[in-house]
TrEMBL record:
Organism: Cellulomonas bogoriensis 69B4 = DSM 16987
InterPro entries xref list: ATP_synth_F1_dsu/esu, ATP_synth_F1_dsu/esu_N, ATPsynth_dsu/esu_N
Protein name: ATP synthase epsilon chain
Matching Pfam families: ATP-synt_DE_N
Gene that produces this protein: atpC
Main location (coarse class): membrane
Membrane topology: Peripheral membrane protein
Top-rank taxon: Bacteria
Keywords: ATP synthesis, Cell membrane, CF(1), Hydrogen ion transport, Ion transport, Membrane, Transport
Amino acid sequence: MAHLEVDLVAADRKVWSGAASMLSAPAAEGEIGILPGHAPVLAVLQPGPVRITPVGEAAVRVAVGAGFLSVDHDQVTVVVDSAEGSVVQA
């Protein structure tokens, strides 16, 4: 089964990294959802929740500040200026 390799990093730390089946984030133009096989994209993020569905684990929700999201060949990189608290299992 195809999956995404996700890296979510804040200015001061790596917040979450791993394999996921889906990710959604608050893009400047509206909510963006990423599934395996997504076309390459670069999006500006606004503050809000990033939701990750890890492979074989409970969903993860992290409140983030502004930043950007990059997708290329099922590799998703989310870089934000801040992440509120630690990872919350949703």
